[in-house]
């Protein structure tokens, strides 16, 4: 065997091994693809898909209905209310809110008559003039009388 023949056999062997590696890689890729496809087919559940499609259709109908109601309301042709239960709940919620506000006003004003609280709030005037701006507490309305100089004592009790 001469050197040229050895080099030729060596090159053929390299080509054969490279082709073999490429075929093995192609086989692994095909197996991976088949495994993924099988996993996806195993996950399919016709009942679940049908239920999902039904829910999607229902949501689409509800969205279209709400959009149509909005368009009618914007145009001024919508009915006053949609559902009697919703109207009752809204009315009840408003009544409860008003009652709660009245109770809070009564508690804050320490009076039992809500109309007296409203009247007191309407007739109240600020205790300090607008020009007397302060930081923190407002000064008391009545200033205490000034103390005479001789009345002060240190450490003695008045007799």
Structural overview:
With 159 residues, this protein is mainly α. The protein folds into three domains: 1-44; 45-79; 84-117. 67% of the residues lie in helices and 0% in strands. It contains four helices and no strands. It has helices at residues 3-43, 46-75, 84-109, 114-123. The longest helix is centred in the first third of the chain and has 41 residues, at 3-43. It is elongated and about 135 Å long. The relative contact order is 0.03. The model is unreliable at 119-128 (pLDDT under 50).
Fraction of residues in H or I helices? 55-70%
Mean pLDDT: 77
The ordered string of helix (H) and strand (E) elements is: HHHH
| Residues in β-strands, percent | under 5%
Number of strands: 0
Number of domains: 3
Radius of gyration over C-alpha positions, nearest whole angstrom: 45 Å
Biggest sheet record: none
**In DSSP terms, counting alpha (H) and pi (I) runs of 4 or more, how many helices?**
4
Can you tell me the overall shape? elongated
Question: Pairing-aware structural class of the strands and helices?
Answer: mainly alpha
Give the uncertain stretches in residue-range form. 119-128
**Span between termini:** 140 Å
